[in-house]
Amino acid sequence: KSQPPVVFHFMPWIGSAAAYGQDPIKFFFDCRQKHGDVFTFILLGRRVTVALGPGGNNFIMGGKHTVFSAEDIYTHITTPIFGKDVVYDCPNEVLMEQKKFVKFGLSTDNFRAYVGMIEEEVLGYMKSDSRFRIFQMNDINEWGSFDALKTMSEVTILTASRTLQGIEVRNHITKDYAQVYSDLDGGFTPLHFMFTNLPLESYRKRDAAHKKISDFYISIIRQRRENPGQEEEHDMIASLMNQKYRNGRALKDHEIAHIMIALLMAGQHTSSSTGSWSLLHIADRPDVADALFEEQVKHFLQPDGTWRTMEYEEIKDLPILDSVIRETLRIHPPIHSIMRAVREDIVVPRTLSAPSEDGQYIIPKGHVVMSSGAVSQVDPILWKNATEWDPSRWSDPEGVAAQAYKQYDDANGAKVDFGFGLVSKGTDSPYQPFGAGRHRCIGEQFAYLQLGTVITTVIRQCELKLASGVPAPNYQTMITLPKKPRDILYRRRQF
Ligand code: HEM
Question: Is residue 41 one of the residues assigned to a domain?
């Protein structure tokens, strides 16, 4: 068996880094045209084999964790940020236990408590700050503007810390803390992914910030232990303090601290990016903004003209809101490439998008493999008007994916669910903004709750519009963010 075709490149070590870094989605579609579903490209000395389409997603996300390792590839960037003994700095079985602990804290009971807290934070943010000062306007007809990403980043950290992270963290969010957080975040870049340690300022700042934040969490844990009443909190620290590994050992303080940092990082850019893109698209589509507002009016506007806080269960039953978030995640999944390091030689069918007699390639041990939900989510073979942001597709059973994919599904016996408004959560799904399989996201429900409450709180209070069109994506950050200008115009509603 031969190895997959290698994408043509001029420079030996650099390979296709520029084309991939500039626009990975275009790069992947171009390569598929030339080479088919499976190909290898050189990325700064690494050999990266890409497997596209739902078949590619299945191959990588459904692969055995002993062969497709997430920790081998991610630990270089994550361990200096999160810290020792958690997530990718421990055996995969330990990560699975840690994910279970976190799931325990992401309980429906806790979520019920969070809706009101998030709403309060958003309203407080709108009132207090000069960047988003809706309620300070004298002239009610005046339009103001805010930067979608800056605003959503601030709202995300405020709401996540008020809920998941805990009251001590929320009360600590001052200018100084924001700087420390930003230093830690400075370690989450493609450069830090390529090189774990370099004698550069950003690396020194990352390490100092990790120590400071980790010590801060450890001090919270110790204070809580000395003052047991606080364990009644609905947050993740409280939950983790009560968990035990299967062998009966409780989590050590530094493990709790490091899991908390991991959750902060996992949720911050993903949610603020999704929130920004959602608001930008809503602002661009007055018909969708009106439908969202009407949905709120129908369910939550009280006879006295005040708004009722949503119940957690009710959020799941708002089809317009749900379709806006789903559709935003389809076109703008924050994570465009999922990577694993290959620990043994493996074989892969040459053609993954349809049953075929084309034979197989061998992928040698040491390659990185990559899948891209971001490609299958906008693949014109699978989706009608694939790159158009159209939330209504989620309530149209014929609109979820095109006929071609159904044929593949029938012929292949794959279990992709084309049911009303839903695409399967399986590893072979064309829609996987939260990943799939063993490493699938556990923050999905929290993210929906947070985004749903933030978006509806904004929509209840104001009309939105865009000065210029929806911005292009910036793929040069680890998480796909909207480029500038990304200003949204807003005006307080009158009704
Ligand atoms: C894993 C996306 C929010 C915690 C993942 C993965 C994706 C993802 C694609 C799979 C990564 C891989 O297989 O390599 C998202 C998106 C979010 C979001 C789009 C928001 C819109 C959150 C939040 C949390 C979180 C809020 C925490 C509260 C995690 C964890 C994992 C994960 C713990 C597991 C990592 C593993 O098992 O290797 N997420 N995420 N995520 N996410 Fe999220």
Answer: yes
Asked whether residue 404 is assigned to any structural domain, the reply reads no
**Is 446 touching ligand 1 by the criterion CB < 6 Å?**
yes
Atom of ligand 1 nearest to the CA of 329: 19
Is residue 276 in contact with ligand 1, taking CB distance under 6 Å? Answer: no
Q: Which amino acid is at 260?
A: M
Q: Structural domain tally of the chain?
A: 1
- Which amino acid, one-letter code, is at 425? K
pTM score above 0.80: yes
- Ligand 1 binding pocket includes 369 (Cβ within 6 Å): no
pLDDT tens track for 438-452: 999 999 999 999 999
Confidence grade of residue 227 (pLDDT, cut at 50, 70, 90)? confident
Check the CA dihedral 87-434-72-57 and report its sign. Answer: positive
Residue 70 inside a domain? The answer is yes
DSSP state for residue 87 in the 8-state scheme: T
Residue with tokens 């979520």: 111
**Residue 230 pLDDT > 80:** no
DSSP class of residue 384 equals: T
Better pLDDT: 382 or 98: 98
Interval between CA 477 and ligand 1 midpoint (Å) = 17
The tokens describing 253, both together, are 């303080």
Question: CB–CB of 159/113 below 8 Å?
Answer: no
On whether ipTM exceeds 0.95, the answer is yes
* Nearest residue (CA) to ligand 1, atom 25: 443
Residue range 144-166, pLDDT digits in tens: 889 999 999 989 999 999 999 99
Q: What is the DSSP pairing of strand 338-342 with strand 481-482?
A: unpaired
Q: Is 29 exposed, middle or buried (0-12, 13-18, 19+ CB in 10 A)?
A: middle
Q: Which domain holds residue 57?
A: 1-82+338-371
- What single-letter amino acid sits at 29? F
Q: Mutation test of ligand 1: which of 93, 270, 329, 481 has the most ligand atoms closer than 8 Å to its C-beta?
A: 270
Residue 106 located in a structural domain: no
> Is residue 94 within 6 Å of ligand 1 at its C-beta?
no
Which of 263, 434, 453 is the pocket-test mutation for ligand 1 (most atoms within 8 Å of CB)?
434
From its phi and psi, is residue 247 left (phi > 0), alpha (psi between -120 and 50) or beta?
alpha
